[in-house]
Amino acid sequence: MESVIQQSHIRKTTFVQKMVLNKYFWMIACTFLFVYPIAKSVNRMLPAELPIYGNVPSFRFTDENGKSFGTLELQGKVYIANFMFTSCKTACPVLLGKVQTIQHRIRGVIDRAAIISFTVDPEVDTSKVLFEKAREMKANPVVWKFLTASTEDTKALLVDGFKVPMGKKEIANNVMDVAHSNKVVLVDQDGKIRGYYSTDKDSINQLMIDTGLLINRKKKS
Fold it and tell me: With CB atoms 3.0 to 4.6 Å apart as the test, which of 68, 120, 190, 195 could cross-link to 186 if both were Cys?
C-alpha cells in the first residue's frame, strides 16, 4: 500500500521539461537567436538612392568672419544650402528660424554636415553685417556659415549651379526686396544636388532622413 502511494507522488516529466533539459535544444535555440538577426539585416531592403539634380560648381566666397570659404572647406561633407538677405522682413526670418531647427537636429554630425546661408543682397550684406546676423541666429560657426560674394558671382552660382532663381534688387510694396528661393537644397559630399525641400514640418523631417542617408552611405562605403 505504501509503495502505491509513493508511486502516485512521482511526477511525470513533461515534453517541455525534456526539451529544456536537452542540450541539443539549447544549441539550436542559441544558433537561431544569433543567425536570425544577421539574416534579417542582410535581406533588409535599403532605401532607394536619392536622385541627382545636378552638380554645384566650385566656388569661393567670403564668410561672416571675413575669411575665404567655399568648395574646398565643404569637401567630404553633406551640406544644406539656403538663400536669404538680412534686410528681408517677410520670408527670410521664417526661413532662418527653420534653419535654426535644422542646426539643432544635426548637432550630432557637425563633423560630417554643414549649413550654408548665401545672401542674395551682397551689396548690403557684407561680412560684418552677416556676422551680426549669425550672432542673432545663434549660429554655431563650426556648422553654420553665412557667405557673401559679388552680385555677379552670387547669381551665377545660384541660377546656374543650384538651379534656383535670384531676381534683381527692387522696391515692392515700399520695401526693398530681392526675389529668391525659399527652398533649402541638400548637397552631397561630392557636390551633387540631391534634393529641394520646403520648410514645413514634413519636408524638414524628410530632409533630416535624407541627410542621414547620405552620411551613413558614405560612411559605409
Answer: 195
Furthest-apart CA atoms within the chain: distance in Å: 113
The pLDDT of residue 27 is 65
The DSSP call for residue 83 is E
Region 41-60: mean pLDDT is: 81
Domain range annotation of the chain: 2-43, 54-220
CB 75 within 8 A of CB 58: no
The whole model's pTM is what? Answer: 0.78
Q: Name all contacts of 100-107 with Cβ < 8 Å and 24+ positions apart.
A: 100/137, 100/138, 101/204, 102/184, 102/204, 102/207, 102/208, 103/139, 103/140, 103/143, 103/144, 105/208, 106/80, 106/143, 106/208, 106/211, 107/140, 107/143
d(CA 130, CA 86): 7
